[in-house]
Each structure stands twice: as C-alpha cells, then as structure tokens.
Amino acid sequence: MGKLTRRTFLISGAMLGGGALFGFIATPNRLGIRRSSSKQEAWLATWVNIAADNKITVLVPHAEMGQGTHTALPMMLAEEMEADWSMVQMQQAPAESIYAVGDMIKGFLADGLDVPAVFQRHTDYSFYKIASLMNMQITGGSGSVRFTGQAGMRRAGAAAKEMLIRAAAENWQVSVDECEAKLSQVFHHASGRSSSYGELAEQAASYEPPLHPVLKKKEDYTICGKPIFRFDTPAKVVGMQNYGIDIQLPGMKYAAIRHAPVFGGSAVSFDKSGIANGKGIETVVKLADSVVVIADNYWRAKTALSDLSVEFSDGEHGDFNSNNLFVEFTKALSSADIEVDFEQGEAGKELSSAAEIFSADYSVPFLAHATMEPMNCTAYFHDGILEIWTGTQDLLGARAFAAEVAELDFEKVIVHPVQLGGGFGRRLPTTGNYIEDAVRVAMQVSYPVKLIWSREEDMQHDYYRPAVQSQFKAILNSEGQPQLWHNVYTDIGINDDTAAAFTPYAIPHQSISRVELETPVPVSYWRSVEHSSQGFFLESFIDELAHKAEKDPFSYRLSLLKQQPRFAAALVQAAKNIGWEKNLPKGHGLGIAIKESFGTIVAQAVEVSLDDKDNLKIHRVSAVVDPGEVINPEIARSQIEGGIIYGLTAALFGKISVEKGRVIQSNFPDYQVLKLSGTPEIDVAFIESGERIGGMGEVGLPPIAAAVCNAIYAASGRRIRQLPLIDQNFNILA
Amino acid sequence: MAFKLIINGEETIVDVEPAMPLLWVLRDELGLTGTKFGCGIAACGACTVHVNGVATRTCVLPVEAVDGAEITTIEGLGKNGLHPVQQAWIEHQVPQCGYCQSGMIMSVVSLLDNTGNPTDEELNQAVTNVCRCGTYQKVRAAVDSLKQS
C-alpha cells in the first residue's frame, strides 16, 4: 500500500466520479439532510455517491471488526433508496469530523439510557455536534445498525430516492405520485418511460433534500431481512484483507516492545551491549513505561528485545494481588457505603422482618480481550504530519488521541482506516496504549515504524473486563414466589449501564445497589460490558430461587414474566427448541437463562453432561433472539454464535489473575480458549417482534454463563457461583 | 545464510539467519502478509501454511528446517481460481473479522487432502486453530459440505 496523505484522500474522493452526493448530516441546530456539492472535498460530507454508470457507493463511518456493519449499513441505505444491490459497493469513511456518529448519542438518549461515560464530554449541543466535538466515530455499544443505520442510513437513502423521483417527474412533467423507483431506476408506468439513477443523479443533487423522507414498510423490503453475502468475505478467504498488522510502507522498520510488568511501573534503564551488533538492529528507544527495539524485521526486533537487559521499577502496585481483591470485595459488600440504583416496595423493611432469608454470593474474574490480531500500530512522522495506520473502533477518537500524544494539532494527524482483526472493546481510544507507544516512537525517528505487541504483551497489558462480586438476598412467599430481591455488587469502573443489574421479573420489593472501589488494574469495555457479569449473576440466582421453591426453573421464570411478553415469548421458544420436556440420558442436564442487553432480548437453553469423573461437555445451545427486526439474518446468526462462543470461553476458562502487580497469564495455553472440538451445536432463532431495533454484536453473550451453570446444577446438583468453571474441578475439553 | 524455498510454485532465495521463523520470512522479507501472526508459540494456528503439502505452523519453524521445501501460503492456494475450500467459505459466509481464516483454511485443506471424508473427531483433532470471533460452527458446516458423499 502506497503512502496516503490527506491530499490523496481528497483526490481519491473526486475519483469516485461525478453525479450526486447525498449525505445525512445533522447540523448544530437541527437534524437534517444536506446535499453536498460535487467539489473535490465535498464527498467527505456524504454517505452515498451515485456515479453516471449507476454504481452506488455507500460510505460507512463505523469500523469493521467482523460484525458485518460494512454490509448491514449499506443494505439499509440501499433498501430505502430502491437501489439495485448488484451495483452497490461499500467504502470505509475516513477519519473526518463530518463522519462523527451523532446518531449513536441520540440513540442512547432516545432509549432513555444514560449516555455511557465515553460519550459524556459535551451535552449542550445537538447530537452531531457533540459527536463532532468529541471527535467520536465510535463503533461499540452494539449501535451501528440500531442508531446510525436506523436514524441515518435509512433516512439518507429515502431522501435520495425522493429526490431522484422528483428529477424524473420534472423531466417527464408528471406528478411524483405517478412514478415508482425500483432497482436504481425511476419508472413512469403510464407512459412506459424510465430513467436510471445515474442519469438522474446530477439533477436530483440540485434539490434541497426533504427533511422528513418517508421510510419503507417492512413488508416491502427487498434487501433488508435477506441473508445477503458480506462485502468482505472474498478478500478474507484469499489472504488479501489488509489488517493494521499487514501495512507495508517504503522504508518502514519494525518494532517490538516490552512494558514494565507491574501496572503503573516504569522503565528505568537498559543495557544494549548484548544486542549492539545484531543484524538489522536499528536502535533502542526507552519510553516512560517500556523499551522498544527497532529493526528491519519484526523477528529481529523481538529476538533482540528478549536479549536486552532492562531495569523496570514497580511503582506503587508491586504488592497488588487479585485474590486479595475478592477478600476486599466481601468486606465492601457488607459496608454501609452503597449507592442505590433501584428501589421498589419496602425492601429494607421486608429484609429486617423476614423469617427466612435466602442469600448467595457470586463472582467473576478479570478477563482479557485476546483479539486474534495482537495490538499493533504503524506510525510515521514526517513534514510536520503524523500518519498512523491501526485497527481502531473509533477513527476520529484515535486521531484526536494520537494528536494529543504527539502534541500536534488535530489537523496534522491522519488516521488511515484498516480492518480490525477483532475488537470486542479492546480497540477504543480510551484503551489506546498501543497507539500511544507507536506514536511516541515515531516522533523520535525519521522513518515509518510498525510496532507489534507480542501475544504476551497483548495479554498482560490489556484493559480488562472488571472483576465483580455480587451478593443476593431473597425472601419467598408460601407459594415460593419471590417477595424480596436484594442485590449489592462491587463496581470498580466501566459500569455505565447500571440498569444491566435490574431484573425483569415481577418481584414486589427490590433493592439494587453497588459499592464503588478502586483497583490498580486497568479496566475497560469488553464484549457486552456489564451484562457479561450481570447476566451470570441474575440468571443464576433466579434459578436458585426456582429450585428453592421446588419449581421447574423455566416455568418459574415464566410465571414472573406475565408483564414482559417479549421475554416470555423468547423463553418459551428457547425451551421448545432445546426440548425442555425431553427425557435425558444419565448425567445430562438442561439449563435456561434470559437477558436483555443493547435493546435485544436473548433467551438461551443449554444441554450439558457430566460423567462420574467430572468431565464436563456442553452439547447444545438453543438461542432465541428478539432484536425487533433483523437486517441480515446470516450476519446476525454469526454474531449470536460469536457472542455465545466468546461468553462460553470466558465461563469455562477465562481468568486473568494478578500477583505482585503482574498479570500471570501470558498466552493461549494459560488463557485457554474454546476451539472447534469444544464448540457445542448452536441453533439460533429470531423473533421479529417489530419493536424498536436492538443491537446484535454483543447480545448473544450475557445469558450463556448462567444457562450453562444452571444446566450443570440440573445435571449434578452442583451450584456454581464463581467463574471460570475450569477452577471448579471440572475437566473440560477445549 | 541463503535458503531456497519454493513458494507458491516459484523458487525463492532468501538470505536470512537460519533461526528466523518461516512466518517472518514470509511476512517481513517477502511481503506475503496473508499468513498471520497470532501467538508466536504455535498455539493458535493463525500462521499455518503447507510445507510439502502438510499443514504446518510457521511462527516457531526455523527457515533452515524448510530449506528446499515447497511452501504453499493462502495467496498461492487459489492462484488458479478459488480452491473448493475457499468457495465453501464464501458459500457458508464463514469469516467474521477473518484474521484467523488463512490459517483455518490451510488446516482444513490439508485435512481434506489426507482424508476426503473426515469424521467429526478427525476434524476436531486436525483443525485446532483459534478463532475469537467464534466461527467454529460455520467452519464445521463448510467442511461438512465438502465431504465426499
């Protein structure tokens, strides 16, 4: 790949061709659609380009990390535009402010959700302006389709269609109502005339876009709802997909890095005498908390780095031990210093007067993301300009972050979009330590540097899913129905959506609260965020209550979901799909769990078996998903399967432990992951309830741990309150 | 030191240290970046290529051990039109992020070359590549579709 500069961006934009450029952008004072002119720079303001030869290019502001957004968003725009899908192509939008994703913020607010902390920097402008001011082009919160797609792409497509119809109607001097748009053409059936979008585009672009374009009805869809092939598959099966780690630039050098092993530690000094004469070794750079060897080949840099003698200081946290943290958690949970997030009925009174209180403590450990592509960033500082190539879930955010690190103006930084070899929350600007390393190195040398973290660095210097402990107390009435639900859990950060801990079940007296603590372990968003732990806690404890009441756990849940028809429907379907009533072989058990996250309700039923030697096998998962509406069922199914595998891996094996301030796990052998052999059969069914569209990328994960543990209880009578399962004396096939 | 490799059918001479793993010869010396770095300890399979027709992890394989060998990488697999495994991967829409898929495909091709009709257990034993996106079920479906009936 050649050297790309801001200038070539603009030229390549112009090369997209003439014709109309339609974009939905929201201005500071109103949400509207603005046409952009076809001047060289104008394409930056657009989401769709129609070329004279009828080719339609959709610019997608979000990052592709495997979730399929680069296909799903163009589908939504093309659907409303009545485009001929065979002529639609996708282009990743660049890291420019005009592509800030205002609909993400608007979406969170419209849902009545708290805006997550990463979004909360300004709230007094309209949403686009906020996103633009924040340099936010974030991909996360399972929000691309439900916010950018629903509020942005659909409206842009519908507006473009109305403008194209108007152009044709004016040419033919007929009413727009007599014209129909279909397959990138406008027809006037009465006279048998037709014009292609390519022919009409330039004229259509001269109109003021309609503010309130009419969206299509679901029953009229020809693109959305279909299992259309992804744009990115062909390149990915021939090794031609370009990831950040694959960037090659003229004169580029390779760098390997070793960080101070203790969180908050620093690099003091190094002795390079041992590597001075190594072949291809360029130099050694010391950063505040790391040392970096630069060479003409990554292996040479990495080999020299392992031979380099470095002195690190431990800083303040050399005594930190994650096992002690859970002791601290237990103490904190009984302290009075709690933050109450939800109260209903008279929870306090009920608790003090109760004859029998049923209680249970649960906990989950820290987890690493372990994306398949280790963290890496290529950076080149030249002519006062910093260029970076890196996989990021937020192009604009990465640009602002790199500018801050380099102490450069935002305008002096160029971020080149590349495909991400997995994201899962690891590649956000707030977790941009890999970008910071590369930028700091690049500012000290005169050539482009590709800095690659080893897997060990990737695992030991992640921002981890927070460890959480949760304490429940409940009281059942004489029929076994819960009267009181009392829950307090630990919060060490990354707990923006406190509603993740709320229960959907009808329980008259409730108190849900948390205790805030601080730890030296860096934490961040991890696929499904709070729901990853809360799903396990909530759905395990309700299962315990069902057994306590001597009721079937599926029927028990159902009896508490009379006011929640979407939950009930998903639960019933999942039970049916697994065969809840079937006769099971000896040692087998069924478990069920349900969790809403990111606007989507997911029920999962699981079949497991345990033999007399505690060999645990997960046989099958039946997932039922109500996201309101499904844009691409094949991509959606992949996302649900992926969420289940990621969550199952964590439930079975996942644990990051810290001793003396250092992460113990270092690579896949001691941070074990599920492989083909351990993967259960997974069936996924969708319920298109027609409710507001929900997310897909994360929602498959939250119920799985509880569903598995509930099945283990059914099979063996062993209740699991602590993850991972590998630490609970099970033998598990990866 | 010079080593002769026949890479995707073309004879290639590389002058590198004998200990340099084949992965980094391919990626950094020859620019063949379709083969990926995942773990560096042969635990994940992202770096799998064919050495004399056999699926082999290359991140710890010294180049001196493959002097004179025929190497096929993902770039060479479909050189004369897509390999049936690559076609099945498209049909079943297997890849998500795609990073592990070069190695996954090379492992599967090798298995099917040896055993036209692998059992589930043979597939489990032969294809131990790590995929964090969780494409395993689609991998299995795509392999099933390629079995000789």
Walk me through what this model shows.
The complex is a heterodimer of chains A (734) and B (149). Chain A has 734 residues and is α+β, with helices and mostly antiparallel strands. In chain A, 29% of the residues lie in helices and 24% in strands. Chain A is built from 18 helices and 29 strands. The longest helix of chain A has 29 residues, at 144-172. The model of chain A is unreliable at 1-21, 23-45 and 108-130 (pLDDT under 50). Chain B folds into two domains: 2-76, Roll (Ubiquitin-like (UB roll)), CATH 3.10.20.30; 84-146, Orthogonal Bundle (DNA polymerase, domain 1). Chain B is globular and about 45 Å long. In chain B, helix 3 crosses helix 6 (136-146). In chain B, strands 2-1-5-3-4 form a five-stranded mixed beta sheet, with helices on both faces. Chain B has six helices and five strands; from the N terminus they run E-E-H-E-E-E-H-H-H-H-H. Chain B has helices at residues 22-29, 74-77, 84-91, 101-114, 120-126, 136-146, and strands spanning 2-7, 10-15, 48-51, 54-57, 70-72. With 149 residues, chain B is α+β, with helices and mostly antiparallel strands. The longest helix of chain B is centred in the C-terminal third of the chain and has 14 residues, at 101-114. The interface between A and B is large, with 66 and 60 residues.
